[in-house]
């Protein structure tokens, strides 16, 4: 197990109060994030990087395995490094749903409160449709018996 270096940073009250968030830059960052990543990748990356959620917390929140969350984070980072876009991705959202997700992520950052986004996650199509497809696909499959045995 490797040891992490701990870096101490001293903040004075004056320095912290002068640091302000530029709303236009924040909105632009969120938009670019959703251009480059699939919606699910964007939400997981956003919660992990912006609000420092642990992988276990994200997995519980989204009803996923920790391995699944790690895989999505890995793919998201690779996509961001390569500069690929998610335009032709089959998991992309409609313009209306994309604008709703952008607004939720933007408000979460401005208010510095992740619950603005988290409360709306069950209503976003990327999480409701995926669970419904998963349930119907595997229950009708003859391999369902083998999955249960494993």
Report on this model:
This protein has 150 residues and is mostly helical. It is 66% helix and 0% strand. The chain is built from nine helices and no strands. Helix 3 packs across helix 5 and helix 3 runs parallel beside helix 6. The radius of gyration is 18 Å and the shape is globular. The C terminus is likely disordered.
What is this structure's SSE topology?
Elements: H1 13-18, H2 23-36, H3 39-50, H4 55-62, H5 66-82, H6 95-111, H7 115-118, H8 125-139, H9 144-149
What tags apply to this protein structure?
about 150 residues, mainly alpha, 9 helices, globular, disordered C terminus
* Beta-strand residue percentage: under 5%
Give me the number of helical elements.
Answer: 9
Helical proportion, percent range: 55-70%
Helix/strand structural class: mainly alpha
Indicate the overall shape. Answer: globular
What's the mean pLDDT score?
Answer: 77
Q: Give, in order, the helices and strands.
A: HHHHHHHHH
Gyration radius (Cα, Å) is: 18 Å
How many beta strands in the DSSP annotation?
0
- How far apart, in Å, are the first and last alpha carbons? 31 Å
Tell me the major beta sheet: none
Low-confidence stretches: 7-18, 130-150
Q: In short, what is this structure?
A:
By secondary structure, this protein is mainly α.
